[in-house]
Design a protein that fits this description.
221 residues; alpha/beta; 5-stranded mixed barrel; 7 strands; 47% helix; elongated; Protein tipE; transmembrane helix; transmembrane; membrane
Length: 221
């Protein structure tokens, strides 16, 4: 019976060691991917979100009207663009839309109102960065919606209370921006910290002793 018991114990130990190995492999991969995910999210989510929050856009859309729509080709002619599909490359073809805006909330706009424009001929961007990636950003559709023959038709937009004379944007949500910022920072860092914490506890000989040493400072019932 003792031989059988020892074999069962060895089998259990072997299963536990195998499970620990594969769990460690998964945790190490998770930590590795978390670092790259966070580095990837910095230019695409974190930085634009911080820029949007710092610009302090008016949360309620105001009234805008396009005054000019320019379609240009060539890097020299596309020093800026209202919309770019891709944020890491220079635009060789671009739409440049200028608008007037009034601080009148768009929900209060009526065709019978004589508009007083607070700022005239200001740059109009799809978002704070003026760029994005399909399918959420489609510059051809954006140009059809706000430029071409629709010029002169009022539409909602958001102006920056910090930079009111620089640009206005078509898309903004304080709640969504803050949520994306918090998630993009917390999730990769929590996964990295949890993975490294477990691996350190398992494979760092001093970690367990350090934890036990600090536990003695807490009273026990």
């Amino acid at each position: 019976m003792s031989v059988i018991s020892e074999k069962n114990q060895l089998t259990l130990i072997s299963i536990a060691e195998t499970a620990k190995f594969y769990t460690s492999l998964c945790l190490g991969t998770t930590a590795f991917l978390s670092v790259f995910a966070f580095l990837f999210l910095i230019p695409f989510v974190v930085d634009p979100a911080i820029s949007s929050l710092m610009a302090d856009y008016e949360p309620e859309p105001v009234t805008c009207m396009a005054t000019q729509h320019i379609y240009a080709e060539g890097i020299s002619n596309c020093s800026w663009a209202s919309c770019r599909e891709g944020c890491t490359r220079e635009a060789t073809r671009c739409h440049q839309i200028y608008v007037n805006y009034s601080k009148l909330p768009f929900r209060d706009y009526r065709p019978s109102i004589v508009m007083h424009w607070d700022v005239a001929d200001i740059r109009f961007l799809i978002n704070t960065e003026g760029c994005g990636y399909p399918p959420s950003v489609n510059c051809s559709e954006f140009a059809r919606q706000y430029g071409y023959e629709t010029a002169g038709t009022p539409f909602p937009c958001y102006y920056s209370r910090v930079y009111p004379d620089i640009q206005v944007v078509a898309r903004y949500s304080w709640d969504d921006t803050l949520r994306h910022l918090v998630l993009s920072i917390t999730i990769p860092n929590l996964l990295f910290a949890a993975s490294i914490g477990v691996l350190s506890y398992w494979y760092c000989p001093g970690c367990g002793r350090s934890c036990q040493k600090y536990m003695h400072h807490f009273p026990t019932e």
